[in-house]
Amino acid sequence: MKLIITDLDNTLLRSDKSLSDYTVEVLRKCREKGHRIAFATARAENAMVRFVQAIEPDSIVSNGGATVRAEGTVIYQNWMSSAEVATILQMCRAYTQDKGLITVEAADGYYCNFIPRDPDRRAAAIHTNFDGFKPPSYKITAELEKEEWGEEIVQACPGCTVIGFSGEIWRRFAAGHSDKKTALQILVDHLGISTEDVIAFGDDRNDLGMLTLAGTAVAVANAIDEVKAVADVLTDSNDRDGVARFLEKHLLFNDTTEEKNEPF
């Protein structure tokens, strides 16, 4: 495999948002054997500094696919316009009577109207009540109890998309083609490799496109059923270092798999 790409939260990271020493070591050994490493996450880059420093990935897909950085160079950025940002925020605040939690990933930082519990997001956060806020932005996430609210918002902003997350009422809004599948295709084209040379790991709905595109799709044991259904293989859970266990078994202990063209 020429590229290992993995989601972070609830996939590579444990539930307490930690990276085990074992995972760090396995990924280091994979790189030494010539396998490129990439993150693909809904997080902004300034909300994953700790993990970037630990793993030193070759490429980063951030903001759910709105930004792609390959080997230090930004090769793709996709924004929602100021008008779209203003409309989405206005509607989210109206639906929740201005009591819902909201985050916005703009070019100049990560904005939110609450104090995040996650330490990495908390360190990056800029607090605001979003009055008059409308800079072009990569994504907006908002707590919306009703799924139809999200659909009504994208009807008002037809250039945008909405996706939900399992077990949560958070909805993510982004410009069209801001998704991990599009980002992965852009990344492999830039690197000059085939999607068949990619192994991808994920757990939630926003990983589905990336997993269907990758040559080998791996779901962690804690993944939702839709992800397990499209995966080629299941591995252990995020809390049992499923990504690292799979890579150690199939890329480190059996590095000839690719040459023999055998399934994982």
Write up what this structure looks like.
The chain is of the alpha/beta class. The protein folds into two domains: 3-77 and 179-260, 3-Layer(aba) Sandwich (Rossmann fold), CATH 3.40.50.1000; 82-175, Hypothetical Protein, Haloacid Dehalogenase-like Hydrolase, Chain: A, domain 2 (2-Layer Sandwich). The protein is 35% helix and 24% strand. The chain contains eleven helices and 14 strands. The protein has helices spanning 8-12, 21-32, 49-55, 82-95, 119-124, 147-156, 180-191, 208-213, 225-230, 242-252, 257-260, and strands spanning 3-6, 36-40, 59-62, 67-70, 73-77, 102-106, 109-112, 125-127, 137-143, 160-164, 170-175, 198-202, 216-219, 233-234. The strands form two sheets. An eight-stranded mixed beta sheet has the order 5-4-3-2-1-12-13-14. A six-stranded mixed beta sheet has the order 8-7-6-9-11-10. Helix 2 packs parallel to helix 10 and helix 4 runs antiparallel to helix 6 (147-156). The longest helix is centred in the middle third of the chain and has 14 residues, at 82-95. It is globular and about 55 Å long. The model is unreliable at 255-264 (pLDDT under 50).
